[in-house]
Design brief:
- The protein is an alpha/beta fold and about 325 residues long.
- Helices cover about 30% and strands about 25% of the residues.
- The chain has eight helices and 16 strands.
- Strand 8 and strand 9 form a beta hairpin.
Length: about 325
């Protein structure tokens, strides 16, 4: 019996980064619950590279479900498939990525299983033989520690909260499962998927240029996009620009948005509310540009520049282009 079961997904034919992070968390807590680390791989295609990646990182048994309905945005199909996999594998703990789909299926899966539930985990560890879940509370101003006292339990983990695991190759095995899925039985249907070009790779970007209310409007984000392009990075935002419709909601970084951990994070016109900091505090280097010298963002930044971004970014862009010979 698996001690921990990871609900794994595929992105562009390969194992998703979030799934690898879940494997790292599973390997950490598995000794406390007994058994090994297994995975339920849910995909529309067989995805052999994903299976191999799971075995290379210490997953013993891969319960593979291949079904045409397991495509992007099909949360109801993923829920049905995940439930059937969990009932077949009978793990003590189930780990789900708290991404767009995972946030929907995690609580619903726990309800169907009659399981304990902990959501939006930012850290997993073991102390005195118990599994501990750390999560941000009060808008990121505090961290709560939850102890898993009964099983089964479902834990959702924020993407980029954990590091990808080091390789730990195992021979492993693959068990192909047939699940009952019917398009007619699903309460929702995906008719069209519209992907914003700038959102692609935001969570994986090594450089993120992010704007806040201080940008002043959607026009200002064109300058941020130009800087991101010359740096080879992605554009993000705090919540106010997304709420105002200046940028797509998919660009939002923070407690209620995405979590990023780039090598360089440029916070432009962002005040530094704790809700936003919760989504980017793991960046290796944080550079803040703000007209207000008292802005809270300077308290978490490694480098701060007080001034108008309209005066600072153009020469910065020109300098980067010159250094790159553009």
């Amino acid at each position: 019996m698996a001690g921990v079961l990871v609900i794994a997904t595929v992105a562009d034919g390969a194992l998703s980064r979030s799934s690898l992070e879940l494997v790292a968390g599973a390997r950490t807590i598995a000794p406390a619950v007994g058994g090994g680390v297994d995975a339920a791989l849910l995909a529309a295609e067989p995805a052999p590279p994903a299976v191999e990646a799971l075995h290379q990182h210490g997953v013993g048994v891969v319960h593979r479900v291949v079904h045409a309905l397991l495509g992007a945005g099909q949360s109801d199909a993923y829920l049905a498939a995940a439930e059937q996999c969990v009932r077949a594998a009978t793990p003590a703990i189930v780990l789900v990525a708290a991404d767009t789909v995972g946030r929907e299926i995690g609580p619903r899966l726990a309800h169907r299983l009659g399981a304990a539930l902990a959501t939006e985990a930012a850290g997993l560890e073991v102390a005195d033989g118990a599994v501990l879940v750390r999560r941000q509370v009060y808008g990121g101003r505090a961290v709560a520690t939850l102890a898993v006292r009964r099983t089964p339990a479902v834990i959702t983990v924020k993407p980029r909260a954990l590091d990808a695991p080091a390789p730990a190759p195992t021979a492993g095995a693959v068990r192909d499962l047939t699940v009952e899925l019917s398009a007619e039985a699903l309460p929702t249907r995906v008719r069209e998927i519209v992907r914003e070009q700038a959102e692609v790779g935001l969570e994986d970007a090594q450089i993120v240029v992010s704007g806040g209310r201080g940008i002043g409007g959607p026009e200002g984000f064109k300058l941020l996009a130009e800087l991101a392009q010359v740096l080879g990075g992605a554009v993000g935002s705090s919540r106010p620009p997304a709420d105002a419709g200046w940028v797509p909601i998919s660009w939002q970084i923070g407690q209620t948005g995405k979590t990023v951990r780039p090598l360089l994070y440029l916070a432009v016109g962002i005040s530094g509310a704790t809700q936003h900091v919760a989504g980017m505090a793991g960046a290796r280097t944080i550079v803040a540009i703000n007209k207000d010298p008292e802005a809270p963002i300077f308290g978490v930044a490694h480098l701060g520049i007080v001034g108008d971004y309209r005066e600072i970014l153009p020469p910065l862009i020109a300098k980067v282009k010159a250094l790159k010979g553009q």
